[in-house]
């Protein structure tokens, strides 16, 4: 039976935010910005649950509660749902893994299922753990949130979930991400010792980011007319990062490949604005937030034509087959040297990005909450 929620009622939701402060990039960006957008609404009352001692990264934080259990396998699966229920939440919103037992409806955000779709992107133990826990979470959730139509179709395919139970909530991009002039951007990067012309790629040095292929393609593009373009890697080292080191050695790239590690959002905005090209030939993405942020900064973007990335980039980027070295090389050459194309993309990027907002993400998220609560109340 459908439960009707009164129009004046604010949905009390507990948000699992234990990833905040852990440099979990996309997952942390998602929960922080969603929580801020939910705060701006008058039909939802969000409370975030963070690890004890965590500092919320905005000046106007939501209501927060500290999770105090030391053991991670107790803190999130057990303490979180117990505390949420005790604090009067009507539902619990988690990412990927739902508690095995919860006395309130659970909405699970599953951003991608790359561990199901592509062999070799994770260690065997990690892949087995994800396949088991995410499948169980999908089955026990009252509703599922995902961030692209592509991922919605893959969740339904792998877990036999009715697509009507899966709500697509595309991510947003904050006003912070906007074009800044190259001179100001380079001044902000002065301490990094970067050249004037470089290709930027953003994300952890994980196998699915396809960085060894990008290094090989850029080495050929440099030899075929792209000029003295350097490569800047902005992201933490991850599983199998040694393959990146091997590709640098093979391409004799020690003089033109720069590994920065994790960088602040201020540095990343400057990098996006100053880069000659932002390259994101990822093998698999549930959305592709770095692509959206680069577009918002007016960057010339080269990205993969696979998985969810075309949903984000549209016609505002050069899209290439991420499994074809020649296609990536050709795309880099076009993006680096075709001035007519570059001018069009610099204008198209911010316009494309403007269609993606966190307020819109929050609106769609409320649809998932109402679905989970059995409500058919209109917006």
Derived structural class: alpha/beta
Beta-strand percent range? 15-25%
Secondary structure: number of strands: 13
Distance between the termini: 20 Å
Within CATH, the superfamily of the largest domain carries the name Glycogen Phosphorylase B
- Outline: globular
Mean pLDDT: 93
Count of DSSP helices? Answer: 14
Radius of gyration: 21 Å
- Give unreliable regions as ranges: 1-7, 375-379
Largest sheet descriptor? 7 strands, parallel
**CATH top level label of the largest domain:** Alpha Beta
Percent of residues in helices comes to 40-55%
Count of spatially separate domains = 2
Which H/E pattern describes the elements? EHEEHEEHHEHEHEHEHEHEHEHEHHH
Q: What fold name stands as the CATH topology of the largest domain?
A: Rossmann fold
* Main sheet strand line-up: 3-2-1-4-5-6-7
CATH architecture of the largest domain: 3-Layer(aba) Sandwich
